[in-house]
């Protein structure tokens, strides 16, 4: 088995997306118990990266999104929905 096999990203750089934090608290810069935590965030994907947190599960696709408020945020593939 090849250890460097990375998944093919579902979305690409330049896609307009709607994002909602859902899965992994360890991807967040700051944990917030705010009432607006589940509010959708809109932005454009500016980079695609990979992270491996366990050899058992392999790589996760991470997207760097430039959000409408000017902040760069990281989202997993399951937290992003493309706007067409």
Low-confidence stretches: none
* H-E string: EEEEE
Give the biggest sheet.
Answer: 5 strands, antiparallel
Helical coverage, percent range: under 10%
Number of strands: 5
Mean pLDDT: 81
The SS-based structural class is: mainly beta
Tally of individual helices = 0
Q: What spatial form do the alpha-carbon principal axes imply?
A: globular
The quaternary structure here is single chain
End-to-end distance, in Å? Answer: 37 Å
What is the C-alpha radius of gyration, as a whole number of Å? 13 Å
How much of the sequence lies in strands comes to 35-45%
Structural description of this entry:
This protein has 84 residues and is an all-beta fold. 0% of the residues lie in helices and 43% in strands. The chain contains no helices and five strands. The protein has strands at residues 16-19, 41-54, 58-67, 72-76, 80-82. It has a five-stranded antiparallel β-sheet with strand order 4-3-2-1-5, with no helix packed on it. A hairpin with a 3-residue loop joins strand 2 (41-54) and strand 3. It is globular. The termini are far apart. The mean pLDDT is 81.
